[in-house]
Amino acid sequence: MEWTDWLHLIIGFFIANALGYGGGPASIPLMYREIVTNREWTTPADFSNILALGNALPGPIATKIAAFVGYDVGGWAGSLLALAATIVPSAIALILLLKVLQRHRKSPVVKGMTLLVQPVIAVMMLLLTWQMAESSIASIGILQSLIIAAVAFWAMQFRKMHPALVIVAAFAYGGLVIPHLNM
Amino acid sequence: MKDNRARNIYMQLSWAMMKTGVIGYGGGPSVIPLIRYEAVTQYKWMEDDEFGEILALANALPGPIATKMAAYIGYREKGASGAVVSVLAHILPSGLAMILLLSFVQYLSSAAFIQGMIGAVTPVIAVMLGMMAYEFGERAVKGLGIYVGIGFFALAFGLLQGISIHPAIVILLFLGYGAFHLRTVAALQLRKQRKQQRQVQQKEGVTRGMD
């Protein structure tokens, strides 16, 4: 692997993620531009295969794409570089920003900011809830969605079950039962 | 003893982040309730207020959201090495699986059981996000009072959904106003008190005059 490849990996993944506001999914089109259009590391068809596998596997999507394309271009070193360019800049920015806030934790300015941000987060979560509900109804229908949602709510709110267990149970139901229902 | 405990926190961080990385389906946002469960409920590294603040700032910065949260939580507990451990635990299992499994890609992405799994987990994620929305809303109402709280909800909803302003901008706007919020409230209360005092004085003046 040439050192220019290393540089291109770092710059490409840095740009795609630094401009991608709103987390992993938002940076997918930007990654496409860097990976397929600018550098021609993969063909459009391969990119959609990578994306399909990325979506079928759990875990954050941006890092899965970076790990794979980096590996494809420059082996394990390439994979590490692409991952670092994806994660490190924004992680350091968040750490520095929060460090400044921590230092002034007692000040009314920081307290007011913490307070005012709660309603925005609540509304954003509400909108995400709505999106998830819509895509759930589109894929498994309203009846199954409602039943699964009700059982999940009961398990987490009243039985205080660990969310990981609830998710694993949903996976089991989805993998074993849903394919055999006539939909 | 001390060394033991330190190692324990690394173990906790790795285990918590690995769990959230492996079961978090659908990328960034769906992982947030899971990270919150580990950080706030399970290991009690922080309070909900602080988690909300981290989430808001992480949303206001670019880049993948889950890795930013993992990095900060690791850093908060154990400094730079904690951040590295958390992020690696969060991304390595799925990253490796991605590289190793690419030959099965056609099969996997069209397999009925994968489709079923994704379908069945979506309502669960919706419930988790909904519960989080309720809890953040509850805290906003507690901190701001019911009328002011509802006002800010309506404003945030209008900006985000009504005129589709980018969430990062909305967060920055609210943070910007939040910096002055407590001072504004204090000033308003002071003015109210002075007004009441003046009224009381006036009344006293009137009654004295009557005497």
In words, what does this structure look like?
The complex is a heterodimer of chains A (183) and B (211). Chain A is mostly helical and 183 residues long. Chain A is built from 7 helices and no strands. The longest helix of chain A is centred in the middle third of the chain and has 43 residues, at 61-103. Chain B has 211 residues and is mainly alpha-helical. Chain B has a domain at 1-104. Chain B has helices spanning 2-23, 28-42, 48-60, 65-101, 105-110, 112-144, 146-162, 167-210. In chain B, helix 3 packs across helix 4 (65-101). The chains are: A mainly alpha (183), B mainly alpha (211). The interface between A and B is large, with 96 and 108 residues.
Considering the chains and any ligands shown, give keywords for the structure.
heterodimer, A: 183 residues, mainly alpha, 2 domains, flat, B: mainly alpha, 8 helices, elongated
| Class derived from helix and strand content of chain B | mainly alpha
Largest sheet of chain A: none
Principal-axes shape call of chain B: elongated
How many domains is the backbone of chain A divided into? 2
Average pLDDT over all residues of chain B? 82
Greatest interface: A-B, 96 and 108 residues
Uncertain regions spanning at least 5 consecutive residues of chain A = none
> Count of helical segments of chain A?
7
Total number of beta strands of chain A: 0
